[in-house]
Amino acid sequence: MSAPSPFQRPRRLRRTAALRALTREIHLSAEQFILPLFVHDGQGDQVIQTMPGVLRHDLAGLLNRAKEAWELGIQSIVLFGIPAHKDALGSGAHAEQGIVQRAIREIKAKFPEMTVIADTCLCEYTEHGHCGPLVPDGQGGWTVDNDAALPLLAQTAVSQARAGADIVAPSAMMDGQVGAIRAALDAAGFEHVPVMAYAVKYASGYYGPFREAAGSTPSVGNRASYQMDPAGGYREALREARLDVEQGADYLMVKPALAYLDVLRVVRDAFNLPLVAYNVSGEYAMLKAAAAAGMLDEKRTVLETLIAFRRAGADAIMTYHALDAARWLREDAAN
Fold first, then answer.
1. Do the domain assignments include residue 17?
2. Catalytic residue at 255?
3. Is residue 284 marked as binding?
């Protein structure tokens, strides 16, 4: 029996690859990717067991990886430093000859057009692995002294800007950190340097591989008292984002991204600042492990995941898949 007329047939627009491309709303490109890179204060590149394909680079290796990214069309990287020595205050984070500061200078000298983002935090530099100085909590344990952390984070951001960072990205989840950093940058003559706020950052189980990579697993307690509760809901997410906007943030970020696509969409709808999705280490490791076990098609699944971030509202994606994804997109464009 024939269908009544008029009759809608959406499949008409999906019949060929060219027709699908003609009506596609979401587009991926290498320029939308931010590649996270680890740099350590030593010699040689080091394997990260839980993150296949990702390395801790020395300065020479870092430059080689930055060159690879640039040639694939990736124009932005974010740097995480692993210092040779750590202390209670994370003083290596703001050292003028710190590993990230040296890395920024070398990358900008060789690739001046590359956007270099400096992760602005203390956890990789403190001997206890927390994002600020610890003080007794009055209950026999320890807690981070929020207000004591702010000048240290501000000092770190200024040192990163002085080294040539194009963007500073505070990730400590300390109350008031964006305002303190913005004021310090402006006072030091870096009013042109944007702040990419880790505005909505959850206390997540998806960070495990990163903590191995950066050597930042807390030695006491955990970060649940300052990172966000996964069950906190939309009101908490919007409040955190709004506070960062009011303090002068230029970008907002949601971290992790894959398990928080709904939050990404809510933040996108509420604010008109550029929005970054951080596709974190655990999300990367899961797909890598499944692909290695033959459980899924890596290319297809990775690109589908990255499209999901864009569809949810992300303008840019911070992802360890960036090199592979850029390579796949280039190959597809050539075919």
1. no
2. yes
3. no
Give me the average pLDDT of each 10-residue run along the chain (335 residues). Answer: 73 91 93 98 95 97 98 98 94 96 98 98 92 87 92 98 98 97 98 98 95 82 88 97 98 98 98 98 97 98 98 98 98 90
299 carries an active-site annotation = no
Q: Which of 86, 110, 255, 288 is catalytic?
A: 255
DSSP state of 126: B
How far is the C-alpha of 277 from the C-alpha of 321, rounded, in Å? 13
**pTM for the structure as a whole:** 0.95
Measuring CA to CA, which residue among 159, 197, 161, 201 is closest to residue 179? Answer: 197
What's the domain count of the chain? 1
Cα 28 from chain centre: 17
Q: Which domain holds residue 180?
A: 28-334
Closest CA to 178 of 160, 163, 198: 198
Whether the CB-CB separation of 89 and 152 falls below 8 Å is answered with yes
Q: Is 131 annotated as a binding residue?
A: yes
